[in-house]
Amino acid sequence: MAGTLTTVQRESHRSDESPSSGDTLADHTINADGENRGRPRDLDKSSDDEEKGGYDGPPQPVGFFSASLNKVRLEVFALWARTTLILSVFILLVLSIYWAVLFHVEKNTSSLNVFVVDFDGRVPPFTGGTPLVGPMITQTTGMMLSAPEPHLGYETIEPLVFDNDPLLVRQAIFDWEAYAAIIIMPNATALLQQAVDQANTTYDPLGACQIVYVEARDQEIYYSYILPQLNALETQIASKFGQMWTSMVLQNTTIPRENLQRVPQALSPAIGFSQFNLRPFRPAVVTPAVTIGLIYLIILSFFSFSFYLPIHMKFLTPGEHPPMKFPPFIAWRWSATMMAYFCMSLAYSLISLAFQIPFANPSAPTTEVANNPEPYGKGTFMVYWMINYVGMIALGLACENVAMVIGQPMQKEQKEKKG
What does pTM read for this prediction? Predict the structure, then answer.
């Protein structure tokens, strides 16, 4: 009985392994190892079954409002709102400083000090007569200080402060002790009186007074605020003095009328102002080097660290090498940054040299008008380069230090999420 059952089970097992009606023997060939090779068609089917079962493949793109994006969408909204709020607060608190600087500029014009130095009749050999030009000008500038309109900060200085030497006043302006100076020459009244008394045809009204300034100190301030008011002051003084002087001369019967006919400039305008711009701001190509060009230099200093950051991080990224220790990494990062600024500041400085900004002119006396004198001679370009280099370090190295402490924005959050 047991032998019969065993025979039946074997037959049943063989019938299960036998090919179906639609299969051929080739579909069930057995290799030497006893494994069923089957057809490639069967392998394809099994692969399809695996894909339908445990492996779903890459996720398919979905729409913006898909339910599967609910969590990340809220996270993006929160980060966007926080970033926008931070930038908005930055704009209100920091960028408003520039608007605040110009908010009361008219009221603060008096902070632009202008020396008024009256040498008229106070320096030998012109001390004998009664000065007219100097006292009238100082009186006019003094009255302007109490006017409600915006005005410059006129300061009446005694000649003794400058040792009775007008050239020392020029030196003070060159040394930035004041933005400008009005100098009434020692012989202002004496030469004017001599012109009408002796019919001096060589009399020049512009020799009575001088206005001295250094435009290269800040060309925008001079042309926007200082020179317009000084020019208006010249017109006011010339008109006021002309009326007073003409009335005095016409009432003086001892002056021959022939003299007045020969020297008409002694009546009108009688006095004038010679302007001495000790250091003009030129050539025009200098403008980018001291204005917009500096903004470009700041931008390069501020954002350059982000370009070098992936390069520096190769020392810390584990891979085929161990990560570098912190002290040598900091030393490398600082030295690499300094060398990068050294090269970039040179490239920036070479732009000015390429467009023929003068860097090798000889020096000139500080009390004389000179165009583009160079106090350092041929070494001026090196000084200019080093100024740009130090400027890049002042901002760029600070940004580099902050980047090493806090890292790039959002970088810390991404690391925490991956952890």
Answer: 0.74
